[in-house]
Design brief:
The structure is a single chain. The protein has a seven-stranded mixed β-sheet with strand order 6-7-14-11-10-8-9, sandwiched between helices. Strands 2-3-1-4-5 form a five-stranded parallel β-sheet, sandwiched between helices. Helix 4 packs parallel to helix 5, helix 13 packs parallel to helix 18 and helix 20 packs antiparallel against helix 21. It folds into three domains: 172 residues, P-loop containing nucleotide triphosphate hydrolases (Rossmann fold), CATH 3.40.50; 170 residues, Rossmann fold; 125 residues, Dehydroquinate synthase-like - alpha domain (Dehydroquinate synthase-like, alpha domain, Up-down Bundle). Helix content is 49%, strand content 17%. Helix 12 links the parallel strand 10 and strand 11. The protein contains 23 helices and 16 strands. By secondary structure, it is an alpha/beta fold.
Length: 544
C-alpha cells in the first residue's frame, strides 16, 4: 500500500448505505467533526438537491458538490459523507485519496430500494421513475469500478448504524498506521497527471541527494546553481552525487532575476550540448526561486525534456516555487511570459540551509507558509501562532515540521489541479494585490513575500467589507503577519501604478479581477463580484 498521510475519512457509496447516520456516529467516537456534502450544497444553494437538478441540471449540482467536497477535505479530523455520485469526477477521487482514508459503504440493490421507500425517491432525482430497482442496479453497475477504489469496503445490508460506525472506526485504526510514511521517507508526494514525485524535508537531507537521485537516474547529473548557493553548497551536492556513483558537474548562474532570460537559457543550452548531455540525464536546480524557474525551463525544453530535481535553498522556494512544475523565463514585456509545466522527479528541502539566508529574506519567506495555513490547514495556523519565536530562531525540528506541512499543502493542491484550472487558484490568496504592488515598485521596492503579506491584508479587508471574511479572522491574520515582522502596508508606492498593474493581473477574466477571499480559516472562496470602488478604497488605505 503506497505511503500517504490521510487526515480525514471520506465515506463513499450509494444512497441509503448509511453514510450520514453512521458517519456522524463514527465522527463522535473518533472525536472528529462531521460534514455531509449534500447538506452543505443544499444550505448554500437554499434549495433541495432535487430542485437543483430540476432547475440547473446535474452538471451544476456536480460542480457544487465538488466545491463542498474540496473545502471539507481542506481541514483535518473530519468524517465526510459524500453523495453517491461524488466519485464520478476524477478530480474528486484524487482529492479524496490525497487527503483522506476512503471507505465505501455497500449494499445490494434490493436493500437500497427497500431503504429508500416510496416517500424518499423525490429527493433522489436520479432514482425517479417507474423502475427504481432497475435504475439502482444500472447505476451501481456503472459506478462499481469507482467504488472499489476505496481503501476499505463495509457491506451494510445486515448491520445496524452503530455496527457500521464501528467498522468505520476499525478501518481508521487498522489502516491509518499502515499509510503513514516512514520516518526517513518523504514528507509529501505530488501526483500530477502521470507523474508522481516525493518531497523530502529535514535537517541535513542535502547529504541524501545522491542516494535519492540514484534510485531512478541512469545518466549524468548537471547542477545549475546561483552564485551564492554554488559557493555555499555546490561542493556538497557534487560530492553526494559522485559518492552515489553518478557523474556530476556544476554550472554557476549569476544570482538575481536578470538570469531568468532567454539569452542566459541559450548559454546553458550550448553548455549542455558541449557536455554532450543526453535525454536520460538529470538537471538539479540548486538555489532560490529564480534558479528553480530557469533550471526547470531548461530541463523542460532541452532535448524536449529531461529529468529535473529541485533543491531549493530559500524558504520561499521550498514552500512555493519548487513544487508544482511551473517553469519560465522573463521577457522585457513581463515576468514568466515564456515557460512550461515540467514536474520534477524529486524535491529535497534541507532546512539547515536557511541559516545562511539574510534576515529580511528569511522573514519574507514565511508569507507563503502563512498563506497555506490560512487557505487550507488551520492546524498549521495554530502551530505558527504558537511557535513564531522558535521558528524565527531556526529551531530545526520545528522548521522541518512547519515547512513540511506547508509544502504538503502545496503538494495537495497541485495533485488535485496541476495546471490551475480550478482549485489551484486558491494558492493566489494575497497575490492579486501582491503582484500589483510588486509591479508598481518595479520588483525592487518589496520582496515577493512582503508584497504577498500586504496583498493578504488587502484581501482580508476586501473580504470583511464584502461580507465574506469574519472580522476576527482578519485580525488574527494581520497579527500573525506582524509577529513575523512582515508588512501590512506599502505607503511609498504610487496608487495609480498599483491600479494599472491590477488591471493586468493574470487572474483577470472578462475584465474582472478574481479575488480569493476567506470565509473561515481553511475555507477560501473565489469571487469575481467584488466592486471596483471597494478595491480602490482598500488599496488607498494600504498605500496612503
Amino acid at each position: 500500500m503506497a505511503a500517504r498521510n490521510p487526515r480525514n475519512i471520506v465515506l463513499t457509496g450509494f444512497s441509503t448505505t448509511g453514510k450520514s447516520t453512521a458517519g456522524k456516529l463514527a465522527a463522535d467516537r473518533l472525536g472528529f467533526s462531521f460534514v455531509d456534502t449534500d447538506t452543505v450544497v443544499e444550505s448554500r444553494a437554499g434549495r433541495r438537491i432535487a430542485d437543483i437538478f430540476a432547475q440547473d441540471g446535474e452538471e451544476r449540482f456536480r460542480e457544487l458538490e465538488s466545491e463542498a467536497l474540496l473545502e471539507a477535505l481542506a481541514g483535518d479530523g473530519r468524517v465526510i459523507a459524500t453523495g453517491g455520485g461524488a466519485i464520478l469526477r476524477a478530480a474528486n477521487r484524487a482529492a479524496m485519496r490525497q487527503r483522506a482514508l476512503v471507505i465505501c459503504l455497500e449494499a445490494t440493490p434490493e436493500t437500497i430500494v427497500a431503504r429508500l421507500g416510496r416517500n424518499q425517491q423525490e429527493v433522489r432525482p436520479l432514482l425517479a421513475g417507474d423502475d427504481p430497482a432497475g435504475r439502482v442496479a444500472d447505476l451501481k453497475r456503472e459506478r462499481a469500478p469507482l467504488y472499489t477504489e476505496a481503501d476499505w469496503i463495509v457491506q451494510t445490508d445486515h448491520l445496524t448504524s452503530d455496527e457500521v460506525a464501528a467498522e468505520i472506526v476499525r478501518a481508521w485504526k487498522v489502516l491509518r498506521p499502515r499509510l503513514e510514511p516512514p520516518a526517513d521517507g518523504p514528507r509529501a508526494t505530488v501526483t500530477a497527471g502521470a507523474v508522481t514525485y516525493p518531497i523530502y524535508v529535514g535537517a541535513g537531507v542535502l547529504s541524501r541527494l545522491g542516494a535519492l537521485v540514484r534510485e531512478w537516474a541512469t545518466g549524468a547529473v548537471w547542477i545549475l546553481a546561483d552564485a551564492r548557493a554554488a559557493e555555499l553548497y555546490g561542493e556538497r551536492a557534487v560530492a553526494s552525487l559522485r559518492d552515489a556513483g553518478l557523474p556530476a558537474a556544476l554550472r554557476v548562474i549569476p544570482s538575481g532575476e536578470a538570469s531568468k532570460d532567454l539569452a542566459v537559457a541559450a548559454e546553458l543550452y550550448r553548455w549542455l550540448a558541449a557536455q554532450r548531455a543526453e535525454r536520460r540525464d538529470t538537471i538539479v536546480a540548486l538555489g532560490g526561486g529564480v534558479t528553480g524557474d530557469l533550471a526547470g525551463f531548461i530541463a523542460a525544453t532541452y532535448l524536449r525534456g529531461i529529468g529535473l530535481v529541485q533543491v531549493p535553498t530559500t524558504l520561499l522556494a521550498m514552500t512555493d516555487s519548487a513544487i508544482g512544475g511551473k517553469t519560465g523565463v522573463n521577457l522585457p514585456e513581463g515576468k514568466n511570459l515564456v515557460g512550461a509545466f515540467h514536474q520534477p522527479r524529486l524535491v529535497l528541502a534541507d532546512v539547515e540551509l536557511l541559516r545562511t539566508l539574510p534576515e529580511r529574506e528569511f522573514r519574507a519567506g514565511w508569507a507563503e507558509t502563512i498563506k497555506h495555513a490560512l487557505i487550507r490547514d488551520p492546524g498549521l495556523l495554530d502551530l505558527l501562532e504558537t511557535h513564531v519565536d522558535a521558528l524565527l530562531g531556526h529551531n530545526t525540528d520545528l522548521l522541518a515540521e512547519v515547512i513540511g506541512r506547508s509544502m504538503a499543502v502545496k503538494a495537495d493542491v497541485v495533485s488535485i489541479d496541476e495546471r490551475e484550472d480550478g482549485l489551484r487558484m486558491i494558492l493566489n490568496y494575497g497575490h492579486t494585490g501582491g503582484h500589483a504592488l510588486e509591479a508598481a515598485g518595479n520588483y525592487t521596492t518589496l520582496l515577493h513575500g512582503e508584497a504577498v503579506t500586504i496583498g493578504m491584508a488587502v484581501a482580508a479587508a476586501v473580504g470583511v467589507a464584502h461580507g465574506v471574511t469574519p472580522p476576527e479572522l482578519r485580525a488574527r491574520q494581520n497579527t500573525l503577519i506582524e509577529r513575523f515582522g512582515l508588512p501590512l502596508r506599502a505607503p511609498s508606492l504610487s496608487f495609480d501604478r498599483v491600479l494599472s498593474a491590477l488591471a493586468l493581473d493574470k487572474k483577470v477574466r472578462g475584465k474582472r479581477n478574481r479575488w480569493i477571499l476567506l470565509e473561515a480559516a481553511g475555507q477560501p472562496t473565489i469571487r469575481d463580484d467584488v466592486p471596483s470602488e471597494l478595491v480602490e478604497r482598500t488599496l488607498r488605505e494600504v498605500i496612503a
